[in-house]
Automatic annotation (TrEMBL):
Its cofactor is heme. Keywords: Heme, Hydrogen peroxide, Iron, Metal-binding, Oxidoreductase, Peroxidase. Belongs to the catalase family. Coiled coil: none annotated. This is Catalase.
Length: 519
């Protein structure tokens, strides 16, 4: 049987990636190639034997260190560069490996291959994170939590990058830098480092009424989850699924933890932040280590695109939920996390997610936040990790990769032949037709800068508050009062309370009373 060099390269890449993703498989890593023998004998990065790693090379016993001490220069230079830029958002995170298994074929809705065979276990990597704080912040602070899943499918990687809350603060990606700037520490004094209790945040929020619904979520106890194992996940954005006949349908993703949803109240979350700032990270690691594997069920809501304009809200608005009584949850499959990372930096810190990482059968909607994220995430990873970030072990697809992209920082593959362009009569990769009918998204309209038509900012926020039990309502009010009490400008507090009044008068009155504001 003849195997081409290109096919051999794909096989080697697949095997090396499997060695990293799947436990118990022992295959040489790329760094072990070129005939290098791996041993426990210490060497420099170039293989030069080291017989003393305690003392620098100096002039005499007490003299100056010599620049020619290449062992020291290499060691300290590498150390100086060990930290890469941390994520602007979602900097503090934890990760785990596992698998996803679909319950039954979803071919009526999508032709995505990993959603068809109930016997197939698709490898996954999941990263949980906080949004606002830096890498050194506490796990239990009040914040949104990231819930990002990378599916290693036979058609390439699919990244489902979401949060633990089904809605978001804004509906247009153009406002995202402003929102994060307002959320982060104030630029004049760099405080607070991981809290929303300051003038800038509430000034932005009070001037952005569309955030009111999100406020009723993140300032409830949902803002302080007790465990990543007991936390819901949501795609937040609206995606499009396409079946083999080319028929599209809108879809929303929901992850439901098998252990149920459990949260801390503000007092317990604050106490644990001081006692064990890595509480959620440690909880996830310890559970997997002792075999208590976290499990989540994936559900979707679907909507015929023809129904889009018949709703009282815009289905592509990320500040809105789809009512479950009208668009019921459909079970899709389960995800089990059964393996901890072996090296946090390589497998978690260097993990790169992007909503633009799709597979055939899943497409973008015109959701304005999703449209912006498709560029922003990949741009961030190229800044943090370099042009070839997709070749790092955790990011590398199990599927074969073949295109004409070459070179760039940290390129390690050795490409054969002279062809690095298309079309070519000298060999090289060729485009492949997708299975089933082609999907052609509907595009029509004039260039414009407008907000969407249906922008009711308060109805769902009020519905959310009234759906809470009495204890949950009291916690929401207490948390809002606590955060707003750190705002030093009364006019900002008043604007925030006025927005709450349009959602629910009782909520507004309770917060105003707690702040000592006259209504």
């Amino acid at each position: 049987m003849y195997i081409s060099r290109r096919d051999l390269k794909h096989i080697l890449v697949l095997l090396m990636t499997l060695a990293i993703l799947l436990p118990g498989l022992s295959i040489a890593k790329p760094s072990e190639g070129n005939g290098t023998t791996i041993s426990k004998n210490m060497t420099t990065s170039q293989g030069y034997p080291i017989n003393n790693d305690n003392n620098s090379l100096t002039v005499g016993n007490r003299g100056q260190t010599l620049l020619q001490d290449f062992q020291f220069v290499e060691k300290i230079s590498h150390f100086d560069r060990e930290r890469i830029p941390e994520r602007v958002v979602h900097a503090k995170g934890a990760g785990a490996f596992g698998y996803f298994q679909v319950y039954e074929p979803m071919d009526n809705y999508t032709k995505a291959k990993f959603l068809q065979d109930s016997n197939n276990k698709t490898p996954v990597f999941v990263r949980f994170s906080t949004v606002a704080g830096s890498k050194g912040s506490a796990d239990t602070v009040r914040d949104v939590r990231g819930f990002a899943v990378k599916f290693y499918t036979e058609d390439g990687n699919y990244d489902l990058v979401g949060n633990d809350i089904p809605v978001f603060f804004i509906r247009d990606a153009l406002k995202f830098p402003d929102f994060i700037h307002a959320l982060k520490a104030e630029p004049n004094n760099n405080t607070p480092s991981s809290s929303s209790g300051h003038n800038n945040f509430w000034d932005f929020i009070s001037l952005t009424p569309e955030s009111t619904h999100m406020i009723t979520w993140v300032f409830s106890d949902r803002g302080t989850p007790a465990s990543y194992r007991m936390m819901e996940g949501f795609g937040v954005n609206t995606y499009v699924w396409v079946n083999k006949d080319g028929k599209p349908i809108y879809v929303k993703y929901h992850w439901k933890p098998k252990l149920g949803v459990h949260n801390f109240d503000r007092q317990n979350a604050t106490k644990i932040a001081g006692e064990d700032p890595d509480y959620l990270t440690r909880d996830l690691w310890n559970a997997i280590q002792k075999g208590d594997y976290p499990e989540y069920e994936l559900y979707v809501q679907t909507m015929n695109i023809s129904e889009e304009m018949n709703q009282t809200f815009d289905p592509l608005d990320d500040t809105k939920i789809w009512p479950e009584d009208k668009f019921p949850l459909i079970p899709v499959g389960k995800m089990v996390l059964n393996r901890n990372p072996e090296n946090f930096f390589t497998q978690v810190e260097e993990a790169a997610f992007c909503p633009a990482n799709l597979v055939p059968g899943i497409e973008f909607s015109a959701d304005k936040m999703l449209q912006g994220r498709t560029f922003s995430y990949a741009d961030t990873q190229r800044y943090r990790l370099g042009a070839n970030f997709n070749e790092l072990p955790t990011n590398r697809p199990l599927a074969g990769v073949d295109n004409n992209q070459r070179d760039g920082a940290m390129q390690y593959q050795v490409f054969n032949g002279s062809v690095n362009y298309y079309p070519s009569s000298q060999g090289g990769s060729e485009p492949v037709s997708q299975e089933g009918e082609a999907y052609e998204p509907y595009l029509e309209g004039n260039m414009t800068r407008e907000q969407i038509y249906k922008t009711d900012d308060f109805t769902q926020a009020g519905d959310r508050y009234r759906s809470l039990n009495q204890t949950e309502k009291e916690h929401l009010v207490s948390n809002l009062v606590f955060d707003l009490s750190h705002v030093t400008k009364p006019e900002i507090q008043k604007r925030a309370v006025d927005n709450l009044q349009q959602a629910d008068k009782n909520l507004s009155a309770a917060v105003a009373q707690g702040l000592g504001l006259k209504k």
